[in-house]
Write a structure and sequence with these properties.
With 292 residues, the protein is mainly alpha-helical. The protein contains 11 helices and 4 strands, in the order H-H-H-E-E-H-H-H-H-E-E-H-H-H-H. The strands form 2 sheets. It has a two-stranded antiparallel ribbon. A two-stranded antiparallel ribbon has the order 3-4. A hairpin with a 4-residue loop joins strand 3 and strand 4. Helix 1 packs across helix 5 and helix 9 packs antiparallel against helix 10. It is elongated and about 80 Å long. The two termini are 26 Å apart. The mean pLDDT is 94.
């Protein structure tokens, strides 16, 4: 997982998420809440075609990688538009652009689903109170400020107000658009198991990493294996680079390759950046190690 930056201009933000279309979808959502439609079992509650329009830009911002596990998604699947705060619990954020992330199917559908963990004794965010007697005109006055307008911050809920609200909730899960994963994540190579495990960078983040493991699957078996393959390549290159006898040309080639592994577009770049902060002597390595 690496820090992501959300682009806030049109284009590339799709027209669904700003201006009149944003307000219109919010109004429809408020009406559904008032009329009790969101509480009914079954039926089509959500307009998934609306948020699917965010997918292309989200994948560009994540370099076609899952925002949670840092694995390329488009190689085997197109990926999902993931609601960081699940719409089943945070109904008013169902069409909020600020609540969307690009995710692989495994992280989204096999692990996170509709779960969302908070710190101990933290209070879950509450949406606006909508009463049965609210008129359409009343709901129309509420619709503009229900969500942030990502293109014009003066037209919806202010972005800083939204950030203050979500900070107060004290989520255990990391949102790479608002949090820097490098603060929380450390990586531990386990040579005997041919794995690289994500661990907390400090004891105070143990619950955060536990939640990310349980709800994102950041330490699922296939990721442990894939990260270790990258670790093998990374360590091989660093040991070769440490050899003072290699030619200038080869040194440049290796340095360029390491820069590529460190770049946003590369799989598991967060892990590589963590290793780059360590001396070579601090990283476990066995020159006889082989891969299966």
């Amino acid at each position: 997982m690496i820090k992501l930056t959300r682009v806030r201009s049109f284009p590339p933000v799709h027209a669904n998420f700003y201006g009149k279309k944003r307000i219109d979808i919010n109004f429809k959502l408020l009406k559904q809440k008032r009329d009790g439609e969101l509480n009914k079992e079954g039926g089509k509650k959500w307009n998934s075609s609306f948020w699917k329009q965010a997918k292309d830009q989200l994948l560009i911002e994540s370099n076609n990688k899952c925002a949670y596990c840092d694995t390329p998604t488009r190689v085997v699947a197109y990926g999902d538009v993931e609601h960081f705060r699940p719409k089943s619990k945070y109904w008013w954020l169902a069409y909020s652009y600020e609540n969307y992330l690009p995710s692989c199917t495994a992280c989204n559908q096999e692990y996170k689903k509709d779960f969302f963990e908070l710190q101990d004794n933290a209070l879950r965010l509450k949406g606006p109170s909508i009463r049965r007697g609210f008129t359409d005109d009343k709901l129309k006055t509420m619709a503009p400020t229900l969500t942030v307008d990502p293109v014009d911050d003066t037209k919806g809920k202010r972005l800083q107000d939204h950030i203050k609200e979500i900070r107060k909730e004290k989520a255990l899960l990391i949102n790479p658009y608002f949090d820097d994963p490098a603060v929380y994540f450390a990586y531990r190579p386990v040579l005997e198991n041919k794995e690289v495990v994500i661990v907390p960078s400090a004891a105070k983040y143990e619950k955060v990493i536990k939640a990310c493991d349980e709800l994102f699957g950041v330490n699922r078996k296939e990721l442990l294996d894939h990260r270790f393959q990258q670790y093998l390549l990374y360590m091989t290159l660093r040991h070769i680079l440490a050899d003072g006898k290699i030619s200038k040309t080869r040194r440049i080639m290796i340095e360029n390759r390491l820069k590529e592994m460190n770049a946003d577009k590369s799989a598991y770049a967060g892990m590589i950046r963590f290793f780059d902060t360590k001396k070579l002597s601090e990283l476990p390595w066995d020159f006889n190690i082989t891969t299966l």
